Amino acid sequence: MDYEHFCIVLSGPSGVGKTTISRRLLEMDDNLALSISFTTRKCKAGEIEGLHYFFVDEDKFEYLIASRALLEYTYVYGNYYGTARETLECFFEKGKDVILDIDFEGALNFKRILGPRSLLIYLLPPTLLELKKRLENRMREDEKEISKRFSEFKDEFKYFPLYDYWIINDDLESAVNDISNIINCERMRIKRLVNLPEGFFK
Ligand code: ADP
Ligand code: 5GP
Fold this sequence. Notes:
Layout: E1 2-3, E2 7-11, H1 18-28, E3 32-34, E4 38-39, E5 54-55, H2 58-66, E6 70-76, E7 79-84, H3 85-93, E8 97-101, H4 104-114, E9 118-124, H5 128-138, H6 143-156, E10 165-168, H7 172-187, E11 193-195
Parallel strand pairs: 2-8, 2-9, 3-8, 4-5, 9-10
Antiparallel strand pairs: 1-11, 4-7, 6-7
Helix pairs in contact: 1-7
């Protein structure tokens, strides 16, 4: 069936499992693609240009804003992050639904701009203690950065009711399956249907 493709916006506190879950979904579903954002943040050890982000300087980012190349952008943790319109359009044309790992501001902008072509999913940890453990085990941020991200999460949590779905990422397999089921159900929504298969009424 030919349906109108949409964006799946995954949000949730840093360390909850957004990257891990996105990767799993992409492995199991050929009709999904990942949107790579632009950022002015410095590339961290283990990150790859064009795979994790497109790393640019502030001048380039400002140019992207001025030329309206970005569908949305935000300033978090001292850096700019943004999604290019072209990225989404290319994937939609190729018949893919697009996963995005973006903050709550970006998610709400997506809802405002794309309306029903956005599906907002909020990932929660089983407990805050477990979230802290995951962040510490990941060993990417120092203690100061971790507590900064923690307090930002507590602030952003007020936007939680504006999301379409919530998932607790306790057991990874269950969380991945739940999200995959949500995506598949959304694909079958009549409001997304563009055309019935050719010759359907013959
Ligand atoms: P995010 O992208 O939301 O910041 P990550 O995907 O990087 O989070 O996950 C943070 C850490 O938690 C990683 O070390 C990852 O392997 C681990 N993790 C993710 N999901 C689970 C889970 N369900 N159970 C235990 N550890 C998990
Ligand atoms: P990190 O530095 O951990 O990679 O990302 C920091 C935050 O920026 C995360 O909350 C992430 O979801 C968010 N983010 C990444 N890309 C984008 C984007 O294109 N737009 C918005 N609004 N947020 C983004």
